[in-house]
Amino acid sequence: MFFRSMSEPEQRHIVSAFAFELGKVETEAVRKRMLGHLERIAEIKASDPKRKEIQEIYETWWGCHGNEEIKATELSDEVKVLLDPKAPFVETDTLSEHGDVLRVKKLNANRQRITGWLQRHKGTRVAGYWLEEIKNKDYSRSKTTYRLHSTVLDSLPKGDEVKSKSRYMFEGIHCGVENVAR
């Protein structure tokens, strides 16, 4: 995971440096043991539940928002429900384009819980992604936005084209599309 979170030039540098150092080792058993350590580290990281949770959030975020700069309040419901799994859905009435009253289910996520998660994970690199916090001090109160960067993927389809791996997928909720019950 660490290796995959690096950019391509960084990966090439790590590989060449490691190959150079291993090339100096004269005993093949030591070389094999070192490679075994690397494989074991990769396995441990891959099975870490906290890393898997962050990876799921980052993959869902990337599918919904890509690397666009976004405020915490503008995150899609699909991302918010991963950041605040206890958030309830509340039903509200709204008018359709034709003037009909529709009952809409909206996610009522806890703003503090979401911003707290983002604060704790700014700069975190997992599975080829890292989260950047951007503070704009041009306003009387600083405006904080976030951007997810991909060190591996150039682009993925966004919005309704993406099928998320989210375990919290709700009928009709995908990247900000609301579930409408009639």
Topology (elements, then pairings):
Elements: H1 2-5, H2 8-23, H3 28-47, H4 49-65, H5 77-83, E1 89-95, E2 101-107, H6 111-121, E3 125-126, E4 129-136, E5 143-150, E6 179-181
Antiparallel strand pairs: 1-2, 2-6, 3-4, 4-5
Helix pairs in contact: 4-5
Question: Can you describe this structure?
Answer:
With 182 residues, the protein is α+β, with helices and mostly antiparallel strands. It has one domain (48-181). The protein has six helices and six strands, in the order H-H-H-H-H-E-E-H-E-E-E-E. The strands form two sheets. A three-stranded antiparallel beta sheet has the order 1-2-6. A three-stranded antiparallel beta sheet has the order 3-4-5, covered by helices on one side.
Globular, elongated, flat, extended or rod-shaped: what is the shape? elongated
Count of spatially separate domains: 1
Largest sheet: 3 strands, antiparallel
Give the structural class.
Answer: alpha+beta
Name the helicity range: 40-55%
Mean pLDDT, rounded to whole units? 76
Low-confidence runs of at least 5 consecutive residues = 154-174, 176-182
